[in-house]
Amino acid sequence: MRDKTTTAESNTFSGEIPKKTIKFGGTAVGAIVFILIACAAVSIVNFYNYLGDQLFEERKAHLIEISEKVSEVVDTVIDSSWDKARSCSRIILRQEFQDETALLESLAEAADIIDGKETIVMAFDQDANFYTSDGNTGYWNDPSVFLPDKETEQEVLSSIPYQDDEATFMIFICRMSEPKILEESGKLISHVALAVNLDSLREVFTVSGFQDQCYTYIINQEGRRLYRHTFSRSFIDGYNILSSLEQYEFTRGGTIDDLKQYIAEGGSTALEFDYEGTGFFVASTDIRAEEWRVMLFVPTEVLGANTSDLMNRTIHSLLIIGLLAVTLISVTVYMVTASNSDKRLLRQQEQTNALLTKAAEEAQSANAAKSEFLSHMSHDIRTPINGVMGMTSIAMQNADDPERVLDCLKKIEGSSRHLLSLVNDVLDMSRIESGRVSISHELMDIRTVADHCTSIISSQLAGRNVEFISDFEDFRHPNLMGDELHLRQILLNILGNAAKFVKDGGKIIFRMKERAESDGKVIYHFEIEDTGIGMKPEFLPHIWDAFSQENGGNRTNYKGTGLGMAITKQFVDLMGGTIAVESEWNVGSRFTVELPFAIADEPVKAEEEEYKKVVLSGMRILLVEDNELNMEIAQYILENSGIEVKTAENGQIAVELFQKNAPGTFDAILMDVTMPVMDGLTATRVIRGLERTDAADIPIIAMTANAYEEDIKKARDAGMNLHLSKPINADDLLKELGAFKK
To answer: Contact, 683 vs 657, CB < 8 A?
Structure first.
């Protein structure tokens, strides 16, 4: 009571409530806040400009890449058209003509052979009269094209008199090696041409993915417009595109003079300019086959729709974070000047900064992972390529030393197989992520799988001091329904890693047993244990991530894509199983896989006896391949087995050879798929449609680098009997041919 009375009396005496003294006034706090806001604003403006520059470079690279792809397609169309024009010239040269009617019929037949649905085959006589595959004749408006001093092959852009005046044709004109005479009239046919309607190539020039707002032009070096393809609205309509662009302001990447210089000197570039109040990117790329240029125009907002949204969101987030930070700092400064007793706001600021730092690190992790993967792949792909090139050079310099050459060839083979495994891993992961991998349910024998995996790993360990133990229990149900190919890949991926990482003096244990059976299904347990280098605890959670590789200084000795375990995990998941790993650094690892299978009602049939080379002697094969190196390899394999080989460089030549030879001349046809003039699928359909006794029955085997399931289906649908994927395995090729030996 005494204390309370004293306090009350004191308050009454003073007449005021005591106040804390603030050392810094409101003016000082306001100045600090103003400085912080100004610094934040300057930082945001600078960051915005930096982002703008980075986004411009990203969009520029993206559009240049697309324009180069369009240029490649145009080059391909031009090269293909020249091949077709030359083929038509050869067809006309081989024939004799009584009158114009016979000539027109031959032109129509030539158009059918080259599948000329969108093209016209033309012939010209010495008086500049033309004859076409669609039955028209007339006088050509520019006879100077056919003068003797003109080049043997010419390409012109022109209209055709009887066609729509607005239609533009790309015409590939070949002077015949010798004129053909029309016997009735005495006229000399001197030139044959292929006319391609540019409107029929609209899909070639169409670039999708830009909301139908990518405008494609083809110009010459002076800027004259040769072709234009636009979408929803008209665009630059001038006769000279470069002159038309002079009226617009270029905002990034250079000026109109820079663009003209790039076009004159060649190469690819992209710039940004303002077109009637809208930002546009323009990209220019050379067309190799002609002195022309492809130009693409895309609105900036369309080209960078996602990145612009990201940029705006980033700026908004920075503004919000900046305002929050300024507010937080202002309150903190005020509270600190008012009282040094409360430090919670300072701790909160530190936590906020830590969260912002963590968020920035996470935002950069995806790009870092991609950059690291590309760096690794660049190193790992170049390493075996360097081995192949280096050993080839050594072998050529030591051609008189058989032992040295043999050693080089063995090393070249090892490097080639390693390079193929890297490419296969990347392709497998791409197909898995795109959802194009399906699991089959076919008859299989688990004992065959065990023997196959054991044999492969044993051969890999040959010559090494590594103990390989196979511990297989008796299988009560060896005949199963499942995907044998993917099961082998799962086991070989894990066993291959074990063989790679185990050191000499170590061991690998491969266990397999049947665990449970119910309702016509069985679960198989696979266990692979090794005494290799193992893995560190911090890496184990990432072992199934794509492109993940433990960075323990091992990349020099243990190379790969970092996709093997990711592919293995995906296959296990697709098959409805589970996979787990235990590992200790410098001790070893143990992988455990459990997979369910349906029990088969019938046993797997024993494989037939392997082919014998002597059985193939006397076979006659038509080999169709456009790549000289691939043809040389295949021809050597066949002829080394006693097979007679006739070669053809494309599908059209193959059809002609088949037609010229009597039925039964060839025992089989080995057909590449992707070839110029006529591809393998088309050639197969043509052969199957011929009216001769062996056309429907002769074995046609696809021998191609197109190795996916959809490619195999296309081959079978075209009428092929079998599909072999490149690189060709000699034993597999000869074994399959043995089945067709008469």
So the answer is: no
How far is the C-alpha of 109 from the C-alpha of 114, rounded, in Å?
9
Radius of gyration of the chain (CA): 37
3 state SS of 521 = strand
Q: How confident is the model at residue 560 (pLDDT cuts 50, 70, 90)?
A: low
Each residue's pLDDT tens digit, 309-340: 555 555 565 566 656 665 666 655 555 555 55
pLDDT at 13 (0 to 100):
37
- Beta strand spans in 28-163 (E): 119-125, 129-132, 137-139, 153-158
What is the pTM (predicted TM-score) of this model?
A: 0.40
CA 190 – CA 178 distance, rounded (Å) = 7
List the beta bridge partners of residue 249: 274
Q: How many Å apart are CA 41 and CA 43, to the nearest integer?
A: 5
With tokens 């009997």, the residue in question is: 721
Question: How much is the pLDDT for 224?
Answer: 86
Consecutive H or E run containing 105: helix 100-113
Calpha distance 186→492 (Å, rounded): 74
Amino acid at 107: L
Rounded Cα distance between 286 and 586, Å, is: 56
CB count in 10 Å sphere of residue 385 = 13
Using CA atoms in the order 477, 480, 486, 488, what is the torsion angle rounded to 10 degrees? 40
Nearest to 143 by CA among 128, 156, 130, 125: 128
Residue spans of alpha helices (H) in 598-661: 628-639, 651-660
What is the rounded CA–CA span in Å between residue 307 and residue 715? 42
SS3 of residue 511 by DSSP: strand
Tokens of residue 602, six digits: 């019938």
Helix, strand, coil percentages (3-state) for the chain, rounded to 5, are 45, 20, 30
Q: Show the tokens assigned to 343.
A: 């430090």
Q: Is the dihedral of CA 561, 566, 572, 576 positive or negative?
A: negative
Instruction: Between 361 and 22, name the one with better pLDDT.
Output: 361
Q: Which residues contact 48 (CB under 8 A, 6 or more apart)?
A: 311, 315
**Amino acid in position 109:** E
